[in-house]
Amino acid sequence: MKKIILTGDRPTGKLHLGHFVGSLSNRVELQNSGEYDDIYIMIADAQALTDNADNPDKVRENIIEVALDYLSCGIDPEKSTIFIQSYVSELTELAFYYMNLVTVQRLQRNPTVKAEIQLRGFAENGEAEDNLQRKGTPVGFFTYPISQASDITAFRATTVPVGADQEPMLEQTREIVHKFNATYGPTLVEPEIMLPKNSACMRLPGTDGKAKMSKSLGNCIYLSDSAADVKKKVMSMYTDPDHLRIEDPGKVEGNCVFTYLDAFSRPEHFAKYCPDYENLEAMKEHYRRGGLGDVKCKKLLIAVLEELLAPIRERRSYYEQHIEDVYEILKRGSDRARATAAATLEDVRRAMRINYFEDSELIARQAEQFRK
Ligand code: TRP
Fold it and tell me: Do 183 and 47 fall within a single domain?
């Protein structure tokens, strides 16, 4: 069986270092491994609209940002198909059929949807909307796991590299695949989730030490940040609030600078930028003991991040000067994606026996039946 990857992002903002460690770097590795027959990377604009219906311009403006971030990180349009979800209208048709295979009750149990409904302050399922100040949950938002099952199955994806929060979506997709195949005959491919390898550092905290980098918290380092921005953000990063004087002992746990060094530094960085220490362990040891100031650690982190971000920034500035070409890449990718999804949809319609016009047996039989 072919090995096919499908994954994607909602275009609601620029991508940041959290996305890089959590997914982008892994995608580039998978792409360059040569182990996969096809790789589809989707800009999920239709899914972004499920809770941004009143703000399509936000989605519209961020499509190019996400595309630039992909390309600048090394997603190669010759090897991976980057496409726009809404352009592949077959996906919505598939979702409409899958909706018959999922119950409202099952959707209500989806823990990610539950959490996201709460996060957005939508009224809970079952609550009477007119008694509440809060807005109800858009049906499109509530059902997005089904749409996501379409995204995955349309491309016959075997492998879906995503964060742990997407596990319930994959579970729901697999259920839909089982139900579909059991009801209509073997048609759809069952996908596997591929979680980030190193879950410890994969969830990168924000620069303020909060659990997650998030645009709304204003604690992100963006892949498109300038060197000056990165420097400023690192210099004001959350460290150990009790480490007041250099000679005080310091804590490295929960100290952002060290969490980031855990995620990004390698021993050769020390030889290059901070030869006082052989490796990160030695630096941490000194910090714990006391006598090592934050600034020295921050300077190292800035150098390490610059080594990572400078080439990304350089590729980005190339593509920023060639925006028409980027749209052409998206258009070509979307055309290619559409052809794949259309082939799957054809199989689905045949399996569901709603392919009336190509069923000459049906037409002949009924012609006979009604002629009598
Ligand atoms: N829900 C994903 C996210 O918020 C984006 C997404 C949409 C996706 N469709 C997908 C991811 C299909 C993987 C496969 O990040």
Answer: yes
* Alpha-helical runs (H) found in 185-235: 199-202, 227-235
Nearest alpha-carbon partner for 256 in 15, 17, 27: 17
> Does residue 8's CB lie within 6 angstroms of at least one atom of ligand 1?
yes
What is the total count of domains within the chain? 2
Best probe residue, ligand 1, of 47, 69, 83, 91 (max atoms within 8 Å of C-beta) = 47
pLDDT string in tens for the chain (372-residue length): 999 999 999 999 999 999 998 889 999 999 999 999 999 999 999 999 999 999 999 999 999 999 999 999 999 999 999 999 999 999 999 999 999 999 999 999 999 999 888 888 887 656 655 555 678 899 999 999 999 999 999 999 999 999 888 999 999 999 999 999 999 999 999 999 998 876 554 678 999 998 788 888 899 999 999 999 999 999 999 999 999 899 999 999 999 999 999 999 999 999 999 999 999 999 999 999 999 999 999 999 999 999 999 999 999 999 999 999 999 999 999 999 999 999 999 999 999 999 999 999 999 999 999 998
Q: 140 with 264, same domain?
A: no
Same domain, 167 and 291: no
Q: What is the CATH number of the domain that holds 116?
A: 3.40.50.620
Pocket test residue of 5, 40, 151 for ligand 1, highest count of atoms within 8 A of CB: 151
For ligand 1, atom 8, the nearest C-alpha belongs to: 8
CATH number for position 308: 1.10.240.10
Task: Identify whether 294 is part of a domain.
Answer: yes
**210, part of any domain:** no
Cβ 9 under 6 angstroms from ligand 1: yes
| Same domain membership, residue 309 and residue 334 | no
Rounded to the nearest angstrom, the distance between the alpha carbon of 74 and the centre of ligand 1 is: 20
Backbone angles phi, psi at 115, to 5 degrees: -65, -40
* Among 179, 221, 236, 225, residue whose Cα is nearest residue 317: 225
Contact 157, 2 (CB under 8 A): no
Which ligand 1 atom is the nearest neighbour of the CA of 151?
12
The residue range of the domain holding 243 is: 227-319
For residues 33 and 79, give the distance between their C-alpha atoms in angstroms, rounded to a whole number: 11
* CA of 149 relative to ligand 1 center, distance in Å: 10
41 exposure class (CB count in 10 Å sphere: 0-12, 13-18, 19+): buried
Cβ–ligand 1 distance for 51 under 6 Å, the answer no
